[in-house]
Amino acid sequence: MQMNSIGLVELTSIAAGMQAADIMLKTSEVELLLSRTICSGKYMVLVGGDVAEVQTSVDAVTNSLDFAIIDTFVIPNVHPDIFPALSGHSKIEALESLGIIESFSVASLIEGADAAVKAASVKLIEIRLAMALGGKAFCTLTGEVAAVTSAVDSGSRVIAEKGLLVNKVVIAQPRKELLSEMI
Q1: Closest-CA residue to 29 (of 12, 9, 52, 13)
Q2: Which end of the chain is more exposed for a tag (fewer CB within 10 A), N or C?
Q3: Using 50, 70 and 90 to split pLDDT, how confident is the model at 19?
Q4: Pair (86, 54) in one structural domain
Q5: pLDDT tens, 114-160?
Q6: In sequence order, what DSSP letters do the residues of 114-166 get, joined into one string?
Q7: Strand 165-172 to 97-103 pairing
Q8: What's residue 89's pLDDT?
Q9: Distance of alpha carbon 160 from alpha carbon 167, whole angstroms
Q10: Domain range spanning residue 86?
């Protein structure tokens, strides 16, 4: 299976979330990447595969369960840094500068993180999704201050267009202790 695209559906209902995962897998040739509850009583389903198949799976859920949809996306040509950042396996030894983007939804945050790493030469550290965050999500990234600023601006613009941006911050020369708090 070609894995050049990811799609996500974020729902208000756990039961609808499990139903959404089943619909996505039955309607398209996609791989289930993540399917789980998230704070606060929400559910998310993330699939990967060919762009057309991922789009078909997201559309099938949107058409069937529109009453429970919070947010959705399909990202074609997803940046490769997204996968290790989602799983918490990014290897960072030191922080040059630190960028943080915070969103009210999981879906918009992943879209923003993808836009950020495509906009500038930065390293995505982590994408943290809604667990112990009251349903919010955030990502962290590092690189030269100008690159991090550009990346944070690009990523937060995507989130702000949906009205879901909580905050964005760029910290020049962060203390090394911050890195141990992130991963």
Answers
A1: 52
A2: N
A3: very high
A4: no
A5: 999 999 999 999 888 866 667 788 999 999 999 999 999 999 999 99
A6: HHHHHHSS-EEEEEEESTTTTT-EEEEEES-HHHHHHHHHHHHHHHHHTT-EE
A7: antiparallel
A8: 63
A9: 10
A10: 82-176
The whole-model pTM stands at 0.86
Per the document, the length of the chain is: 183
Same-domain pairing of 91 and 165: yes
Amino acid at 157: R
Which amino acid would we find at residue 15?
A: A
We report the CATH number of the domain holding residue 143 as 3.30.70.1710
Q: Do residues 12 and 50 share a domain? A: yes
Q: Which residue has the tokens 């050049």?
A: 4
Q: Is the pLDDT of residue 82 over 90?
A: no
Residue 74 CA to residue 127 CA, distance in Å, equals 17
Q: Give the chain's mean pLDDT.
A: 90
List, in order, residues 6 or more apart from 47 with CB less than 8 Å away: 6, 7, 8, 24, 25, 28, 30, 31, 32, 33, 54, 57, 58
Secondary structure (DSSP) of 59-81: HHHHHH-GGGEEEEEEEET--TT
- For residue 129, the model assigns a pLDDT of 82
